[in-house]
Amino acid sequence: MGHLKNEVDMPSSSSPGSAFDSRAVYVSTFLGNRFYLLAPHIDDVAIEDIAHGLAFQCRFNGQTQHFYSVAQHSLMVAGLVPRRLALAALLHDAAEAYLGDMVKPLKSLFPDFSRIETEVMAIIGARFGVAGFDDRLIKRADLIALATEKRDLMPHSSEAWQSLGGIAPLPARIKPLSPPVAKQLFLLEFQRLAGIGTTGVAA
After folding, report:
1. In whole angstroms, what is the distance from residue 67 CA to residue 175 CA?
2. What is the pLDDT of residues 107-143, one digit of tens each?
């Protein structure tokens, strides 16, 4: 995730069943913020940290023919939904800037991760006044993007993916963007959709 790193302090007792101190488990972000994974706070959320983290993070655990960022994926999804849902679509994977992009087969084995992800998304939604991340139109756009990415970025993945039944990829082929370009375009699209100027980029 580029400059993003994990800083985790273990509790004094490491015996089975002991809990982490929620204020000791955090990620240090690009802007130098601390984002507490088990106690996320609205003031710790910054759009530039989100844009940076998503732009420097590769989809599909890096198992792609070319580097392809979560930020570029988010831009694609935002472009496939009605204007009223575009900001929610742009931010639908924003938690991954702080938690990482855990592949779905692994995520299903860790229910606590999904709970934490839901809580982080709620804080992000509150920070930017956005809701509806699970809207059916966003979910369908996400699947269309997924089908397009599978075709263009994973040519050796010949097996059918059950989640893509009846979903056709977009006609246009994906042209992967570099992380700095994807970050810039993500921030510009956020500004446009949120109706803010450049002074609000780091907010």
Report:
1. 10
2. 778 888 889 999 999 999 999 999 999 999 999 999 9
Query: CA nearest 91: which of 148, 129, 42, 145?
Result: 129
**How far apart are the C-alpha atoms of 145 and 80, rounded to whole Å?**
9
Q: Domain map of the chain by residue range?
A: 45-200
* Entry pTM: 0.84
Residue 144, C-beta contacts closer than 8 angstroms, at least 6 positions apart: 80, 167, 168, 169, 170
pLDDT at residue 1, rounded to an integer: 37
CA distances from 7 to 24, 57, 97, 170 (A): 8, 18, 15, 40
180: Cα separation from own chain's centroid = 16
Residue 159 identity (one-letter amino acid): E
| 25 strand-pairing partners | 8
CATH superfamily of this structure's domain 45-200: Hypothetical protein af1432 (1.10.3210.10)
How confident is the model at residue 165, as a pLDDT?
82
